[in-house]
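Can you give me the bound-state structure? Components:
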Amino acid sequence: MTPVATSFFFYLLSGLALLGGVLVITRRNPVHSALALILTLLALAGIYLMLYAPFVAGVQILLYAGGIMVLFLFVIMLVNIGRAEKEKQFNKQWIVSFVAAAVTGLLFVWILTKSPLLRQIAQKAPMQLPEASNTQDVGNLLYGQYMLSFEIASLLLLVAIVGAVVMAKKRI
Amino acid sequence: MPAITPIHYLILAAALFALGTIGVLTRRNVVIVLMSIELILNAVNLNLVAFSRLWGLQGQVFAIFVITDAAAEAAWGLGILIAFFRNRETVNVDEVDLLKW
Amino acid sequence: MLNYVTSYLNSNVTPGQAGNVFWAFVYIMVVFAGISLAVVAMNWLERKALAHMQVRLGPMRVGPHGLLQPIADAIKLLLKEDIIPDRADKAVFWAAPFMVVMAAFTTYIVVPFGPTHAITDMNIGILFMLGVSSLGVLGIVMAGWASNSNYPLMGALRSSAQMISYEVAMGMAVVSAVVMTSLNDKGVGTLSMIGIVQAQQQQGIWFAFKFFPLGFVALGIFAIAMVAETNRAPFDLPEAESELTAGFHTEYSGFRWSLFMLGEYAAMIAVSSVAVTLWLGGWLRPFPNALSGSGWDFVFSLFPGFTFLILAGFAFLGVIRMPKHPYFKAETLGLAGFAGALGLIGLILFIPPVRDRIEDIYWFIAKVAVFMYLYIWYRATFPRYRFDQLMKVGWKVLLPTAIGVLIFTAVLGVTIK
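Here's the bound-state model for the whole set.
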């Protein structure tokens, strides 16, 4: 089943994602940056839906936009002091880092468009990922082949919970 | 307009990666640095999911692990930020320059 | 072009799955209008039912028995002055109510009113609904912070802490229901909303009564958590008037406040739809197993018509009891017209072709309406929870119970074949 108006939605969603990304790194107020990041995350969830990955899109909305960003907003409201907004926003090395990151990005884009190997890969026909059973297949992989990684990820979350509580307590 | 190939998604991921790197290296507010790190992780996720379109579902499984990892890392980083803010009353990365004072 | 429109009418999938943009748009418009009408009706019903439970009458003046009160409220709110605090963050202040309303209304894409009557049937239906309704928390946090004032900020922080605490227990209860869907021959469950109801149909039992009392306890946990999730009594400390002067929407006036109210009622209807779909059999008629057979099917298919006839009877009773004074002439005529319209709808619902199509939608809406009445009943009956008691219940009572229900459901599901 071919999706409807693919290129229109791709350009719209990627434009929104890039706009959000630019706003994140340039706004003076951290709350505005957080809201721009939410815009980027939701646009990326839409792009995952276009790539026939509905489960990853659902997890992105539920965890990233609905969980991590709420955490960020809580902490921003706790540490939001007026003094931070009157200071300089960018540090002394901004020209060097801008040039370095821009050159890295352009290098990526140049390799992606000019390399014959990648072009060959791009011409490869996409796999038929049936969307109606995506969750079931991902679940089979998670609990079958990648069971060890799954358990390690749950241990990692437990360590993160304990660590965050200990770090933020007033008296240990 | 040409058809949308996976290369388009990889270019978008590269652009987001570059934006995130600029944010990490340039900004002075710790919270915005952490948010730029989340941008970088999202760029990596987009890369993984774009390639999983060509080669199977393993990319999506790895993307789920990356999201889990990002949640743990955000919780940790913000806990450290709160602990630091309680001591020094500032969120400026330039002032995190002494191990003991 | 006409072929595009009519070709959908023969298919038996939702418009989203058929890829038919026109019919998807039509369904979206119908659902949007229906939800707005339901919010208006819910507003009226809340005031009347609360009043009658408190031995008073409620709005009686605006229309006959206050039936035009919500319209008067809407006109008042639209004409009110739009006050923005001086040092508020204008962009965030403007965007917060829209975030809440968007999060509440986007969840209706996957709500199944019938086996093919949904806007689309995503593979991740229930996950999508939980995720998008957690975006409403962001809207509330933004509203409280942008007001730049103490009470809204505290109200927003308390409200969002409460919502994310009860989301965890809600998720666990939902997972236990999804585990029950996988107890079929192939051993494969599903997250899609239509698939969950079809699993209940196939197993011949509503999930609330499966592995009794496990399904019932899961439904109870979800019912309590959903009341806390939508900031309604008895968990409405963040927006109670005697506690925090209306909490996070203190500084909002006129149209923006009405957007918050719209988002709140729409979210209530959405989470009630989730509860109905997961545990109460969605669009299935009651007693699918015990009272089966074509005779009982016929009896249950007469319910929609009888419901509307009974409602018309109540309205007609109100007409008879109207005071016989020339001042009340217009109201009496209006109420009689309303009773006539309800009766006409009831009679139309007896015609066999209409009866077959309406049956699924009717049972779904009837079950959601029961949950809405329960919301109003809770508000009239229970005293308010203090905030620390609220958090204690969420983390120390509901979450361990939900985890226990999940473990027992999984164990029973594997051992009992």
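A couple of observations. Residues 132-172 of chain A form one domain. The CA atoms of residues 44 and 98 of chain A lie 24 Å apart.
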